[in-house]
Amino acid sequence: MKLSVLLLASSLFASALFGADLTGKWSVTSTPPNGGPPHETTLYLIQQGDLLTGYLFSRNQNEPIEHGKVTGSSISFEIVRDNFGEKRVSEYSGTIEGDTLNLQMPGWEDHKGPVFHLQHVSSEKPGAMPEPPKKVSLPAAKPVPYNGLAKTPPMGWNSWNKFASKVSDRLVRETADAMVASGMKDAGYIYVNIDDTWEAGRDAQGNIQTNSKFPDMKALADYVHSKGLKLGIYSSPGPKTCANYEGSYQHEEQDAKTYAGWGIDYLKYDWCSASQVYDYHSMPAVYAKMGEALLHSGRLIVYSLCQYGVFHGPQWGASAGGNLWRTTGDIQDSWKSMSHIGFDLQLNLDQYAKPGHWNDPDMLEIGNGGMTDTEYRTHMSLWSLLAAPLLAGNDLRHMSKETLAILTNREVIAVDQDPLGKEATRVSKDGDLEVWARPLENGGEAVGLFNRGATTATVTARGADLKLTGSYKIRDLWAHADRGEFKDQYSAEVPSHGVVLIRLDRGR
Ligand code: GLA
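A: This is the predicted complex of the input protein with alpha-D-galactopyranose.
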């Protein structure tokens, strides 16, 4: 009794003290929002008046806090990161409540991340921040020979956008079944790709293990193959994946052989914690290392680079052995995210796309519920014009008729899969109205008339902008209807956030 009164008194005393001085250690161990092993976030603070210094330990690394301030029971500070050669300032803010520090984490772009509730651990003044471990620099790699795969952009499904950590053997089997039963396979969707959160640790020989969600990866691959489909998997060149699972660092060849042994056909390789161990100038060599390993794995494996387009990824993706490479950060199921990625962040990348090697503006969100069907048709049209991988990101077991119709529109898919492999460019922009076009193998052209604005508008594709002369037959690929002859231009009413996608074929 006496002891608990004493403890209460001392903790009240300590709480009162925090109002005056936050110096000490504040820590929380949390599970990432998308699942994964718990990880630690700790603030080592020194308060002098209203100034705050110290460092933050998160994502397995220490970073000094800058411009730290205490205002009443609130704090704010910045962490300045070297984001692949560009300075990025992340703003943190927090409130103190008793012995809890509620820390608002920064998120992507202007989104806020989760709030972490750090507990007071000690009032001891922290020493200097430990020196960061020296990063590995790899010498430039020789170009990795082309593996002969992905002559057209890969088509399939990936678990992440809809299911994140809820992916399992059962989900993958059911998705494979649904891919066949829904007609998606017949429309060209072949890869069933497991994203992050399948990994466990390693055995005594260093072999990567699957966790309990995937009891037998080889049996799963056999099942997927028995449906005439292919199986994809995910890893990171760093020690940990983005969701904090086991990565391939220092096990690249071994992992590539394991994948081949299981019957894996596709690898998405996600940079993430590689920043903690590699100097980012080594990024092309780091990717080439896995590219080589896959080539010598004994199985043909499509190689998908996921490094968000930083450090000029599209320029060296192919020579690292990549069949595709991400060009941006993660897509979200919103018009804002999809349209920004699709329209604004793909400019001037067409020169890097060709058969075997594709720009990847990230997976599809069609059918996930955050956009209208009109917006999803824009998503599908734009990705097809961009010769982007078509990796559905929804629940294939429960799709609306409209979602299925959007994903399986064969006339649109034929644009994406056109064997010439030329990515579209933006040929005109008039405020919110944009026209994008890509040349097709038969001498024709696929043209998207887009309206990013808030009200219906007339969009015009001009022959002069398209650099087309002569006459062409017009086919509307969403209406599945012929629209007569194209001479100098074609105009169409396009709803807000919508598209009219046409194909121009030379008349006989
Ligand atoms: C990163 C990738 C995503 C997904 C997650 C998994 O954010 O960009 O596509 O793979 O990691 O953790």
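The chain has three domains: 12-128, 155-422, 426-505. Residues 61 and 276 are 7 Å apart (CA to CA).
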